[in-house]
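In pairs, describe these two lines:
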Amino acid sequence: MSAGGLRVLIVEDEAFIALELECLLEEAGYVPVGVATRSGEAIALARDLSPDIALVDIHLADGPTGVAVAQALSARAGTTVLFTTANAKRVPPDFAGAAGIIAKPYSERVIRAALAYVAGRYHGGAPAEAPDGVVLAPTS
């Protein structure tokens, strides 16, 4: 599947970071389908929009609820979750079903590489090597 076919949900309560991610996704050929700032909003958007990938921060507007969001979204068939967080220590040992962690602050190169990896590994693209700057879940 090409990058242009992948739909990405951004779960991030910092408006500037969310906007920056949206622009980066569009430039890289992905389709940002929505931005959620709270856990309930993220779960509802995922249900309604069926994203292929969700980029999820740990700390959202309603507290450190990103882990619960990751568990709910990764339980959905076809949605791969990547944490984007400065609080990697808050990610449980099983990664709450997420495929990996992109540590903040991150670079555009790391985001692009992580999305290419997910596209290749989980969404029918060519197999890819795990990118630098991404910590993969133990089961990945």
